[in-house]
């Protein structure tokens, strides 16, 4: 199985990776052959300590907290998940949107978030970080931003720019927006496109900015562009692809402290 590994450890005893197109489509909701998807997930399961917590992602900011081990039969409508339990695998599916994996440096809590522009505008990263800190108050968090569409290929309308530059989210927690530094930095992530009223938007850059405003360390990594690499990644923007790759993270009790 082909997997992208983090450039550095996310935390003590934390395992994480991103799959690629070579690993097959892992989404059940995009019209692919259910048998093939099941086979792909079965292969993925062989390198994991447990079946992943799959979410029904809806481009919102809801965070699912995994506080006990249980068989989940009903769909989980959320765009992020958090756990402090060892060997519980959190998973995010993407094909242009940002998969963001987050861990406490001491390996006490992990989180995974699906962040397209709607999720970012609604505060999905802030909600994820807030939930993680509710479990471990003194946590030092590191984030790994995975493969996603890059600015040169991501043309958006004025409504996206307006949504992304709002001063604060309804849920609070983004108090740094009030200090006069956030908005100018965020505005720099939009470049006028050749089409009238359109902008080229730096989605990974916006996620990085929001995480840094929250005091989260973003791991330095050349995030691959999904749209520009058809051999390695699916892209909904490029070809309305039915495929999805996965980002997985878990606390691994078998790893030695680093």
Provide a descriptive summary of the structure in words:
The protein is of the alpha+beta class and 258 residues long. The protein has one domain (3-150, 215-251): CNF1/YfiH-like putative cysteine hydrolases. It contains 7 helices and 13 strands. It has helices at 34-45, 117-122, 124-135, 158-164, 182-187, 203-213, 236-239; strands spanning 3-4, 14-19, 63-66, 80-83, 90-94, 98-104, 110-115, 141-145, 155-157, 190-192, 198-201, 217-218, 245-251. The chain has a 6-stranded mixed β-sheet. Strand 10 and strand 11 (198-201) form a beta hairpin. It is globular, with a radius of gyration of 18 Å. The chain starts with a strand and ends in a 7-residue tail after the last strand.
CATH topology: CNF1/YfiH-like putative cysteine hydrolases
CATH architecture: 4-Layer Sandwich
Mean pLDDT rating = 90
As a whole number of angstroms, the C-alpha radius of gyration is 18 Å
Number of strands: 13
Beta-strand residue percentage? 15-25%
Number of domains: 1
Spatial order of strands in the largest sheet: 3-4-7-6-8-12
The succession of helices and strands, N to C, reads EEHEEEEEHHEEHHEEHEHE
Number of helices: 7
Query: How does the overall form come out from the CA principal axes?
Result: globular
CATH class value: Alpha Beta
Poorly predicted runs: 169-176
Q: Termini separation (Å)?
A: 25 Å
Largest sheet: 6 strands, mixed
**Residues in helix, %:** 10-25%
CATH superfamily: CNF1/YfiH-like putative cysteine hydrolases
């Amino acid at each position: 199985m082909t997997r992208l590994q983090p450039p550095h450890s996310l935390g003590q005893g934390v395992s994480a990776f991103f799959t690629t197109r070579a690993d097959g489509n892992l989404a059940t909701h995009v019209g692919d052959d259910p048998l093939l998807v099941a086979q792909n997930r079965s292969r993925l399961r062989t390198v994991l300590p447990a079946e992943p917590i799959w979410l029904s992602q809806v481009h919102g900011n809801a965070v699912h907290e995994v506080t006990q081990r249980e068989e989940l039969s009903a769909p989980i409508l959320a765009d992020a998940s958090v756990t402090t339990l060892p060997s519980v695998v959190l998973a995010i599916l993407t094909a242009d949107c940002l998969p963001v994996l987050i861990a406490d440096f001491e390996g006490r809590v992990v989180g995974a978030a699906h962040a397209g522009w709607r999720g970012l505008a609604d505060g999905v990263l802030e909600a994820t970080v807030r939930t993680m800190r509710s479990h471990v108050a003194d946590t030092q968090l590191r984030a790994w931003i995975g493969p996603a569409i890059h600015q040169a290929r991501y043309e958006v309308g004025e409504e996206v720019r307006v949504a992304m530059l709002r001063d604060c989210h309804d849920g609070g927690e983004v108090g740094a927006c009030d200090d006069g530094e956030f908005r100018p930095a965020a505005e720099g992530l939009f470049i006028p496109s050749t089409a009238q009223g359109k902008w080229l938007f730096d989605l990974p850059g916006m996620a990085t900015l929001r995480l840094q405003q929250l005091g989260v360390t973003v791991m330095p990594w050349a995030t691959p562009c999904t749209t520009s690499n058809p051999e390695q990644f699916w892209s909904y923007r490029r070809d309305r692809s039915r495929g999805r790759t996965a980002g997985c993270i878990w606390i691994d009790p078998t790893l030695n402290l680093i």
